């Protein structure tokens, strides 16, 4: 059972990548499965197909095979097991070659969940855009899961600006807003989650591929072809109507950015509103807090300078090599 796990920081393009991958045969764009128990089962938020989670035909079948009556408790235990303060211990375990997260009876439930999702969707690849590195590390230790990690990175000034936008949890009509962390907090989260992602997986080229949002929007079709080859997805006809436009059908993403509901013809182009909209003070704060990551991933420190193409990392994957955010 292959799981393509999108890791890194929020607002970096993961929703766009997930939506596009979900258009290929044999692929299920499952969204942020980390949050299925709370946002799906407890809150009953809309599936990517538009129906409430518990009414969606796919998730209705999956729910019969997992203990949904314990969803709230499972969600709470996952939050406790994957807290940020546990990250140093997780990294020590990884360095020592030990299991990253202590085993728990809930792990069997997670294994059953991914097996049921793949089976009922008829999917060879399940795309999970949960992003949180500790959750990805937990998945990689579960029996029967062949994990591939796609590390999606975006300029931290852009992600900080995006987090400040007012967005409904499930679209413009939703009065509940997504979280809007201050720019300093967005910068710290960007630094931590991207650094932890690279620390856990970057040394394992066969299971790790890093892609920058800026490179994706510069060459959408080419970049998605590389991602598909890395994940073992048969390219087929694909969803591209031209090198920078895709036709999106509804997916069954269980949680994530409200742009997961977008369908129809969608142009993939860079969203660079932050270059004019981010204040000098915010730019300086985010830059100061992310300098090591900026250099590592090829982003300029000075405003107006050009990015450096540091390339992405992966093992050989054979012959193949938006304005929407995740």
Automatic annotation (TrEMBL):
Pfam families in the cross-refs: Sulfotransfer_3
Matches recorded under InterPro entries: Gal/GlcNAc/GalNAc_ST (IPR051135), P-loop_NTPase (IPR027417)
GO terms for MF: N-acetylglucosamine 6-O-sulfotransferase activity
Protein name per the record: Sulfotransferase
Chain spans, region Disordered: 304-326
Source taxonomy: Bacteria, Bacillati, Actinomycetota, Actinomycetes, Micromonosporales
Gene Ontology biological process terms in this record: N-acetylglucosamine metabolic process; sulfur compound metabolic process
UniProt superkingdom: Bacteria
């Amino acid at each position: 059972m292959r799981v393509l796990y999108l890791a890194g920081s929020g607002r970096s393009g993961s929703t766009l990548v997930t939506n596009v991958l979900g258009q290929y045969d044999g692929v299920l764009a499952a969204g942020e499965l980390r949050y299925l128990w709370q946002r799906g089962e407890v809150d009953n938020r809309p599936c990517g197909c538009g129906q409430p989670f518990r009414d969606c035909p796919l998730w209705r079948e999956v729910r019969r095979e997992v203990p949904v009556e314990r969803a709230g408790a499972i969600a709470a235990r996952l939050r406790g097991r994957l807290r940020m303060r546990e990250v140093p211990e997780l990294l020590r375990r990884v360095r020592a070659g030990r299991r990253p997260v202590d085993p728990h009876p809930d792990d069997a439930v997670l294994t059953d969940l991914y097996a049921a999702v793949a089976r009922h969707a008829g999917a060879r690849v399940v795309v999970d855009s949960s992003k949180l590195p500790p959750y990805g590390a937990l998945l990689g230790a579960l029996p029967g899961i062949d994990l591939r990690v796609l590390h999606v990175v975006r300029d931290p000034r852009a992600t900080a600006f995006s987090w400040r936008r007012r967005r409904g949890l499930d679209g413009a009509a939703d009065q509940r807003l997504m979280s809007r962390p201050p720019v300093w907090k967005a910068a710290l989260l960007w630094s931590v989650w991207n650094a932890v992602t690279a620390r856990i997986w970057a040394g394992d080229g066969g299971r790790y591929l890093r892609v920058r949002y800026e490179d994706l929007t510069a060459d959408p079709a080419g970049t998605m072809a590389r991602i598909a080859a890395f994940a073992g997805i048969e390219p087929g006809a694909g969803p591209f109507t031209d090198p920078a436009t895709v036709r999106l059908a509804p997916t069954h993403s269980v949680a994530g950015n409200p742009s997961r509901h977008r369908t129809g013809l969608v142009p993939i182009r860079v969203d660079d509103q932050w270059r004019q909209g981010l204040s000098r003070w915010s730019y300086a704060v985010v830059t100061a807090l992310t300098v090591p990551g900026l250099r590592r991933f090829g982003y300029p420190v000075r405003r107006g300078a050009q990015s450096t193409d540091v390339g992405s990392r992966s093992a050989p994957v054979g012959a193949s090599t938006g304005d929407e955010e995740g």
